[in-house]
Write a structure and sequence with these properties.
Number of domains: 3
Number of strands: 10
Low-confidence stretches: none
Bound molecules: flavin-adenine dinucleotide
Helix content: 40-55%
CATH superfamily of the largest domain: Butyryl-CoA Dehydrogenase, subunit A, domain 3
């Protein structure tokens, strides 16, 4: 078993490798894509070729066989370079549901191709217009029909569908009114988007971030029962176990983006002269940068704790939630401070600050809103009455 110290040593190599790759994709690359609302094809291809997106897949299926902590370090470095890790992070971890809960046949069928980069599984269909954060209230229904299921319903804000071959879909297989616990009766499917034709309709939603996200309508979509992951009715549990990994990884990329903002703010505060001195000489400028730095370091410690536990099989939802909460608040603060430090120049897109400011803002709301994180911790960690 690899020790924490050995893993940290390996992280240095990971950081250097990812930094070298990211150096080929400067701020101007991301700014241009953001302006055109285009997908970072070249960047994702480079990450894939170098094996960075398949690190969480075990070696026996052709992946890197690393853990969530290591994957987090990769995403952190992408964020720190000013890159938008959120555009491709899902290719790293969506397959985790197959890995943890899929059959041997499904693992053999999907994981080697995902590891090789020839199969993209980075669309994750959970959120619905009438359910929002209340996931067990979703109504997209998969009705059993012989060897198939027929799916009908609507999802919203489903990202990267246009850049995926498969979507991991959460649907009801038993109506909520007919189950004892509302978390029962939900199932997870792998939907082949290449064969869906007219049975899946997409309506792209323009947002303030460069993430291809969509309203998705399922109209009598046929999904083979062989594409259901695990047992029928247990899907909520499978999705939850993946969400803990997702929260640690999202926290990691936010920490990276936050430090990018700090790096830029420090450089600018040292070089910009106003009233005959560096603006960074003013406590009103330097203290907010220092505070944001401190908060990011604290978030990183919680990320490390949550990631190490996750990799040791001792997943604690509270820690993953706390890591996501602290990282999103700290990254948002760092981006805001970088905007203030840059004055009017922060608004100029070529500096990359306003883009990251928009990107990190999303994390206060998704993949889970910070209110829901606090509600969960209040109930499950502190023993307060359930509020939702
Ligand atoms: C760009 C983008 C990409 C996304 N990509 C995906 C994706 O790929 N797949 C996917 O499934 N989803 C995706 N989402 C959806 C995202 O996960 C949700 O937007 C998020 O979970 C919040 O759900 P909602 O928007 O319905 O907000 P709601 O649930 O309607 O909440 C609205 C507000 O009310 C607050 N609130 C609600 N209930 C409570 C309560 N009980 N206590 C306190 N506060 C409460 C929330 O915190 C929030 O601030 C994406 C969203 C965006 C914007």
């Amino acid at each position: 078993m690899t020790t924490v110290a050995e893993r940290q040593e390996n992280h240095q190599l990971i950081r250097e490798g990812v930094r070298d790759l990211c150096a080929k994709f400067p701020t101007s690359y991301w700014t241009e894509l953001d302006e055109k609302h285009e997908y970072p094809e070249e960047f994702v291809a480079a990450l894939t070729e170098n094996g960075w997106l398949s690190v969480l897949i075990p070696e026996e299926y052709g992946g890197g066989g690393l853990g969530v902590w290591d994957a987090g370090v990769i995403l952190e470095e992408i964020g720190r370079s000013g890159g938008a890790a959120a555009t491709c992070h899902a290719q790293m971890y969506t397959m985790g549901t197959v890995l943890r809960h899929g059959s041997d046949e499904q693992k053999q069928r999907f994981l080697p191709e995902i590891a090789a980069g020839c199969l993209r599984l980075q669309a994750f269909g959970v959120t619905e217009p009438d359910a929002g954060s209340d996931t067990t209230n979703i109504s997209t229904f998969a009705e059993r029909d012989g060897d198939n299921y027929i799916v009908r319903g609507r999802k919203i804000f489903i990202s990267r569908v246009q850049h995926s071959d498969f979507m991991l879909l959460l649907a009801r297989t038993t109506p909520r009114a007919e189950v004892t616990r509302k978390t029962d009766g939900l199932s997870v499917f792998l939907v082949d988007l290449r064969e869906a034709g007219e049975h899946i309709k997409l309506n792209r939603i323009k947002t303030m971030v460069n993430q291809v996200t969509n309203e998705v309508a399922f109209d009598d979509l046929v999904v083979p029962a062989a594409n259901r992951i695990g047992e029928e009715g247990s899907g909520f549990r499978y999705i939850l176990s993946g969400m803990n990994a997702e929260r640690v990884l999202v926290a990691s990329e936010l920490i990276g983006s936050g430090f990018f903002c700090i790096d830029r703010a420090v450089a600018y505060a040292n070089e910009r002269i106003v009233f005959g001195r560096q603006i960074g000489q003013n406590q009103g400028v330097q203290f907010p940068i220092a505070k944001a730095h401190v908060d990011l370091e604290a978030a990183r410690l919680m990320r490390d704790k949550a990631a190490i536990d996750y990799d040791q099989g001792a997943t604690k939802g509270a820690e993953a939630n706390m890591a996501k909460y602290l990282a999103s608040e700290a990254a948002w603060q760092a981006a805001n401070v970088a905007m203030n430090t840059h004055g009017g120049y922060g608004f100029a897109s070529e500096y990359g600050i306003e883009r990251v400011f928009r990107e990190v803002r999303l994390a206060l709301i998704g993949p889970v809103s910070n209110n829901l994180v606090l509600a969960n911790i209040a109930e499950h960690t502190l023993g307060l009455p359930r509020s939702y």
